[in-house]
Design a protein that fits this description.
This protein is α/β, with parallel strands linked by helices and 321 residues long. 24% of the residues lie in helices and 30% in strands. It has 8 helices and 16 strands. Strands 1, 2, 6, 7, 8, 9, 15 and 16 form an 8-stranded mixed beta sheet that branches. An 8-stranded mixed beta sheet has the order 3-5-4-11-12-13-10-14.
């Protein structure tokens, strides 16, 4: 049996950030993930200046494509405006792999099937033992499902369903565009041009509200495709979108039980206005690591529930050079 101090289930941004901080403090840990990296991950790939600060991230050290936006083109129903901001975009296929290996800890490709808690720690599938356990496996995290679901059930009204696609396309419009509440959608759609000729387009909405209206996300996806063609943003592309889901910010009764923690989407931390997940995931991973290192309480109360204040905040923090 492989033994370590901390087992982290999930190699996405939350798990990688947790491992990175643990290693900085000389705490032994390993990451289990069911996929080999790099792996496909549907996501608009929006990261804030706070993410760069949290990760001590220098853009000049990043070996992949990185895009910076100084404004967003925003439409709320029929009201259109330009929102000055300072935000970034990456491809999750590249970013997650880079972040995972930057953590510098052992990575095991393993699908977690069973979790047993004993007096001294946690046993995963009879193969791995850790004194601490961190669930960073996303919306369907096995740590959440096994240890937290009954005591901290997710609020179904907070479930967001999404469809999106990222693809190579010779775009001519470099602006990031966001459309809120169009055609009765309880959510928003986006067009995000990225470095090296990639474009990410997608749409997300509250599942329960769509269901109550007898509406479907597929219907709104088709409307988005028509809009992209009409605006000349994407034409002649054969779409193959991927679906996924996540929970917006929850107030879960328990996010730590004994020496088990849940972070990122496993704890339902996406922001309430923009569904931003990467920043809250990374911050929660760091907070869990610090609780383990310092033997202190674990709380996500310091993580913002909304993205808008960050969008409006002037550029700050570490130089990008």
């Amino acid at each position: 049996m492989i033994q370590t101090d901390v087992i982290i289930v999930g190699g996405g941004p939350a798990g990688s950030a947790c491992a990175w901080r643990l290693r900085q403090n000389n705490v032994n840990c390993l990451i289990l993930d069911q996929h080999s990296f790099p792996r496909f991950k549907p996501c608009a790939g929006w990261i804030t200046p706070e993410v760069l600060q949290d990760l001590d991230f220098r853009i000049s050290d990043y070996p992949h494509g990185f895009t910076t936006f100084t404004s967003f083109q925003v439409t709320i129903r029929k009201f259109k405006f330009r929102l000055p901001t300072h935000q970034h975009a990456i491809r999750r296929y590249e970013f997650d792999d880079w972040l995972l290996h930057r953590a510098g800890v052992p990575i095991h490709e393993h699908t977690v099937k069973s979790i047993a808690q004993g007096e001294d720690g946690y046993v995963i599938d009879g193969e791995y033992f850790g004194k601490f356990l961190v669930g960073a496996g996303g919306t369907h995290c096995p740590v959440y499902r096994t240890l937290f679901k009954t005591v901290s059930p997710m609020v179904k009204e907070s479930l967001v369903v999404a469809q999106e696609e990222e693809f190579l396309y010779p775009y001519t419009d470099p602006r990031c565009q966001l459309w809120f509440l169009e055609n009765g959608l309880p959510g928003y759609a986006w067009y995000v041009p990225k470095a090296n000729g990639y474009v990410n387009v997608g749409i997300g909405g509250k599942a329960e509200q769509l269901k109550a209206k007898g509406d479907t996300l597929k219907n709104h996806w088709n409307l988005l495709v028509e809009k992209l063609d009409r605006l000349g943003l994407v034409r002649g592309h054969t779409y193959k979108p991927s679906g996924h889901s996540y929970y917006q910010r929850q107030n879960l009764p328990e996010i730590r039980r004994d020496n088990a923690f849940i972070v990122g989407d496993a704890a339902g931390l996406a922001t309430l206005d923009m569904g931003e997940g990467i920043g809250p995931a990374i911050r929660s991973g760091l907070l869990a690591a610090e609780a383990i290192v310092r033997n202190t309480d674990y709380s996500v109360a310091s993580i913002p529930k909304y993205s808008l204040p960050s969008l409006l905040r002037p550029r700050f923090g570490r130089s990008s050079s």
